[in-house]
Amino acid sequence: QTVVTQEPSLTVSPGGTVTLTCASSTGAVTSGNYPNWFQQKPGHAPRALVYSTSNKHSWTPARFSGSLLGGKAALTLSGVLPEDEAEYYCLLHYGGAWVFGGGTKLTVL
Amino acid sequence: EVQLVESGGGWVQPGESLRLSCAASGFTFSDYGMHWVRQVTGKGLEWVSDFTAAGHIHYSGSVRGRFTISREDAKNVLYLQINSLTAGDTAVYYCVRGTKAVAGVDYWGQGTLVTVSS
Fold it and tell me: Which CA distances in Å does B41 have to A9, A24, A43, B20?
């Protein structure tokens, strides 16, 4: 059973920068895991932010960026806005199946 | 405009079956892989299954054997048949479109709630 691990919670100040990470129990996350990132606010469906490590969707704000960092997938938010407070999930691909991380609750305070 | 509209959710008793549907519009349905993702209220997301544009099907280990994904490209509809429902299947089920060129997903439906209770 593959487990994908994210920080349970993070706090950032408005205007600051924060990096969320996504680790795999099978070892280093690579581009072959096609990391995806999603934002979800209470009462709403998730919204896709990044696919295949670092590709942004047409609606993804420029302040969001995806990368690989130290064997993990990473989502960096620069110039954080109060509206970025939400739950963030990563998704990794494992030769056919996909596995979500447990989510990171980002608080902007 | 891409739209994904799920239906078929509701209240069912343990052991019963249910078929969820996802009506797609605004894109060439047959060109895209499609996924089902579920979420227990207040909990995280769980990937359930996908049906690629090439016709390949995958399931998570937790649902394999009880869930069956299918699609009707002529009608632009994705299905999820769920058998032998248990309380653990109580969740919002989302229909999600895969990205066309590289691996990932993009558009999400609003979800349909399945409640399994006696």
Answer: 18, 25, 10, 18
Q: Are B53 and B45 in contact (CB under 8 A)?
A: no
Beta strand extents in chain B (DSSP E only): 3-7, 10-12, 18-25, 34-39, 45-51, 57-59, 67-72, 77-82, 91-98, 105-108, 112-116
Asked if B103 and A1 come within 8 Å (Cβ–Cβ), the reply is no
CA atoms of B2 and B9, how far apart (whole Å): 22
- Strands lying side by side in the sheet with B67-72: B3-7, B18-25, B77-82, B67-72
| Token reading at B13 | 């008793």
Structure tokens at B5: 């509209």
d(CA B116, CA B99): 32
pLDDT in tens, chain B (118 residues): 999 999 999 999 999 999 999 999 999 999 999 999 999 999 999 999 999 999 999 999 999 899 999 999 999 999 999 999 999 999 999 999 999 766 899 999 999 999 999 9
> Is A51 in Cβ contact with B104 (below 8 Å)?
yes
Q: Which residues of A touch B35 (CB under 8 A)?
A: 98
